[in-house]
Amino acid sequence: MKLLPFDYAIRNLGRSPKRLLLVIGGSALVCTLVLGSVAFSRGMETAMTASGLATNAFVVGSGSEESVERSEIPPSTGSILAASVDGLAMLAGQPAVSSEIHTAMPVSLVDAVSAEDAPPVLVRGFEPMAFAVHPQVRLREGRWPARGSDEVAAGPEALAKVPGSALGSHVAIAGVPFEIVGVFEAPGTVMHGEFWMRLDRLAQLTQRTTYSCVIAALGTAEIGDVDAFTSSRLDLESIAMTEHAYFAQLAEFFAPIRLLVLVTAILISSGGVLGGVNAMYAAFASRVREVGTLQALGFSRFAIAASLIVESTVACVSGSLVACVIGLALLDGVAIRFSMGSFGLAVDPSSLLAALLAGVLLGLLGAIPAIVRCLTLPIPSALRS
Amino acid sequence: MLTAFLFALTLALSEPPAATPPSIPAAVFIEAMPKDAKSASWVKKNTKQGDTVVFEAKIGGRAEPFVKNRASFMVADRALKSCDEIEGDTCGKPWDYCCESAESKKANMLMVQIVDASGKLLKCDANGVHGLAPLAVIVVEGVVASVDDKGNCTVDAKKIWVKPAAKKS
After folding, report:
1. Any chain A CB within 8 A of the CB of B105?
2. Number of residue pairs across A and B with CB atoms under 8 Å?
3. What is the ipTM of this complex?
4. For domain B22-162, is the CATH number 2.40.50.140?
């Protein structure tokens, strides 16, 4: 079977530059939306994976396995765990066990006009051993808050949540002013969007007599050892899992949100799809006589359909390449902030592949109505049209 | 010379014998039910570390009563009603005793573990071994490893009798 030359399809694309731009633009819009939604999903997944280490045991109150913010465990849990489980990692002769409080609180600038509308930001109460179990955290500027003081350290995304806040400025956390004395970073993790203050001060601020969790670096111990410990200590009413498992569970909890974003993107992009298909249909419909001529010259309907599909696919894939460039240049790493921290959009090979596949699919689907229109006419009718 | 070389080569290429994974010794499980079994709550109230005890209990007390990869599990006093014994209850995990208060759980539940000769907890699953399963009724003969006034009690099991599951008609 004789196919039409490849360059025939490519040259046809240039016959109407405006129409070509319209198709490429529509395709780029659709593919950008698909890329953005996949980047959202991948970013959230990546942040959850990076935030929790498989080498850390995560002890929370039983019944709060899906939300550490709801968890309450006795303050003595950390020290009892450190004394009871052999093989935990050691740092300077001390077991690497970090007791923490995690709570979302409204944070605004001290002199903000409307503190009531302040966004909730995750505030973590920590002790120095937290750095042994969270090696992702690095101090970028300033210093860490002192014990018992009205001081906090902030992640860059936490600062972005409170416009105007910076190192040295004062923020009101639950109405109490705190000085930002340090800026830390933990790229790719939820901690990048948190405020950290000393554990004793946060307990005092929230009037809590309990902590949220204990995180222990396992060392040569295994999670089964910590699980056996929490199971045998009925008085602590706690449960153990790896920190990685906790965040994997959390990622699963957020799966419907990721799906919702994807469905929304598909719904919005369906407008773009229809526009693209319409433009493609108009472009091909005006060439019915040309298609009839090709048939009269002996080219089969399949060969003509293949040429039209190539033409349509090349235009749409060009749009998806534009979407990939937009994604890499403008979307990659863009922070999405939510109550328990933040994560960045991840324009990775998966999201780029999704955009390219969307372009190919759009090209194939977009050509079908036009092919049906052009090739179902008898040759004499096509030549007379 | 060639023989020696081949022998050395064989030794070098042969894989070291795989270590036998730990398992609960079959001798732990007995056929005859020990007599004069007490209740789990009695054990918690009336014993001290090192006492030899015989008690009857039902496996359960939380959603996952068995500790993964460790020969350790939680049991509840038979006086407590598991969710399957409550008429009309459709609890998906009837062994979690979710209808009981935290105080009641503290007073009526304890941990059973199986340790090796050196007293270390065996690193193997107990779930499914010799009929051990959530809601299984067992009689344990063992030694109190730890007990305190905060509601914690752990018993090192030496012998376990598992009540045969009732045959479904």
Report:
1. yes
2. 42
3. 0.80
4. yes
